Amino acid sequence: MSRLFSFFDPDLAACLEARCTEALKPGRHGDLPKWQAAVDALPRVETGWRIDNGVLVAGGAADDLEALSETLKALIPWRKGPLRLGGIGIDTEWRSDWKWNRIAGHVELQGQRVLDIGAGNGYFGWRMLADGADQVVGCDPTLVFYMQYRTIERFAGESGHLLVPLKFEQLPARADFDTVFSMGVLYHRRNPHEHLQRIRDHLTYGGRAVVETLIVPGAGDDELDPPDRYANMRNVHHLPTARRLLRWFEDNGFGHARIVDVTPTTSEEQRSTEWMPFHSLANALADGDRLTVEGHPPPLRATAIAVTDPV
User: Fold this and answer.
1) Rounded to an integer, what distance in angstroms lies between the CA atom of residue 64 and that of residue 86?
2) What angle, 0 to 180 degrees and rounded to 10, lies between the N-to-C axes of helices 143-156 and 32-40?
3) Which of 49, 90, 112, 285 would be a feasible disulfide site paired with 156, CB 3.0-4.6 Å?
């Protein structure tokens, strides 16, 4: 881990390494020993990685594919992908490659230092590197996703990709990044303004925020704050119209904010699979997919881009 923390100056590296050590202490999660055992059991294969038609392919094929498949299934649920690790295809819950294809043409990453908030297992970070980023730092406090990242890293080998098992709020606010991605995070924040301000604090002057979030349809300056769940998800707040989302950027000191994509989420893009065998989007929709099971508008996702220089 020490090599990876060389992304940062020594004081910041020491701070982050200490926080990661604390996050991974025995007893922090009852399944952590099982997940660590799965990572330790991974076979030695030729390392390397590439993106093949949207699939993150990492590592050469293992000698015993059946055993590797069982080892990888100890890390279920696999949500972001698709992946092919050591010769095993992992059909993840999300077709994250579809989302990336909608975003990639609007963001130039060549030579950039990038932060990926709520990175999950880090799939998007590898896409960012493949599109020219120099370094990618991801953060996600969900420990099974971190162990999935460690698994991918074991097959991929050395790279410019670091993922830390921390909340975004645990990263010291430093203007270290040229681009910050926040995908599928904003609607989980009780205070969206605080989240956008924190993103701004991590950006260099003229840096870009790329925010993908749930919105609600309508031309007005409105929002929906679900009183309980939304599409079976807990902790969902402040779903804005597109107009309000852009105003949030303006209110928090960003300029040139624009929405580059609006796409309904379908059960083809997010679904249960062998590698994520629990409830997914289909279980959260009703009335012919015209409403969520709570009676709200169905998931509609927008991607907005803004810069820190408002001039």
Assistant:
1) 10
2) 10
3) 49
